[in-house]
Amino acid sequence: MAAVLLEPGTRLLHIGPHKTGTTAIQGALHLARERLAAEGVVYPGRGRQPLLPILAVTGQPALLGGPRPEISYWDSLIRDVREAGDQRVVLSSEFFAEADDATARRVIADLGGARVHVVVTLRSLTRILPSQWQQYLQNGFHFRYLEWLEGILSEPPRTPTPGFWRRHRHDDLVTRWAAENGPENLTVIVLDESDRLMLLRVFESMLGLPAGFLVPEERAVNRSLTAAEAELVRLLNSEFSRRGWPHRDYARFMRHGAVEHMKDARRPSPDEPKIATPAWAVARAAEISAEMADGIEALGVNIVGDLASLGKLPEDGPDLAADGRDLAADDGSAPPMVPVEAAVRATIGAFVAGGAGGQTAEGIVRDLDTRSLAKVLADRCRRRVRRALPG
Hints:
Blueprint: E1 11-14, H1 22-31, H2 33-38, E2 41-42, H3 51-58, H4 71-83, E3 88-92, H5 101-111, E4 116-122, H6 125-137, H7 145-152, H8 163-168, H9 170-181, E5 186-190, H10 198-207, H11 227-242, H12 248-265, E6 277-278, H13 279-297, E7 302-304, E8 320-321, H14 340-353, H15 361-365, H16 370-388
Parallel strand pairs: 1-3, 1-4, 2-3, 4-5, 5-7, 6-8
């Protein structure tokens, strides 16, 4: 089915869920905010997504170390939406996927009831699992991938992340929102893994924008961690937790420091091992995805893309561990070797986030070679970091 052209005055509510192209579409909308306004399309807020208002209305806690969400933020966002009048409005956040029935009902009512058209973007669980695990790592968790997979895919699930299935039991997610808004007012977009621009083109069609209007924001490309990088983050998280350091410092030193700088500042070599999903987990995830696709098809919602593709085994990934072994599993096998550059970049990020000597990352590393960098950084910054993160 082709994408539905939404009438002027419609509120396009994109609810994710996580790891389904949300970063790409939000980055493109953010980049085009002023040009969108000229086309009669409002993308409210100032950043890539209005995170705090959505966390507030859905009753979710702040990200580890982040500011507390207040419901007044949501009220302010709703005022901006109402001021848009008969212009189209697009609101995108994967955190809407966490809403229960009552919250979904409130969100739809606040946004204008009959004016709302809900969009759900989907991809197979086989693609989502490794991405979602590393996202949990970047919010402070430190469980191993294999341990998490065994729990999340068991029946019933045993996991420290129970919210995973609220987000990713996709048939239940679509059912929940269709029940509140009507199946005719809900579109499911199944991502085409071979066409990274597909999602942008569908949003253009729905919003009445010219083809090619939305372009990717390069900074919004959220690259995956390699197996070694993920293990580095996991071990740092474990140490952060073991030492009882304040949660308020996590966002500063880890998420926006060590992790963000490592991802932005280095490009892994092609031969660095990626996070590998055991074949048994891929097969089980494909089976669950096929079940969910059947349930969604029966709902009568608008569908763009190949719904049946969700249940197919991937031909080109995610990377599989040929022997079914998790690369970071505690099974007596050698852990992944962390490249010196990755460790250094993470260290730089943490130090710069903490204000090491008032210098930028470039200033710190100027004229230093990789071999000596870690030692010099430690000598320069040890006292400052210890003051900020008391052991």
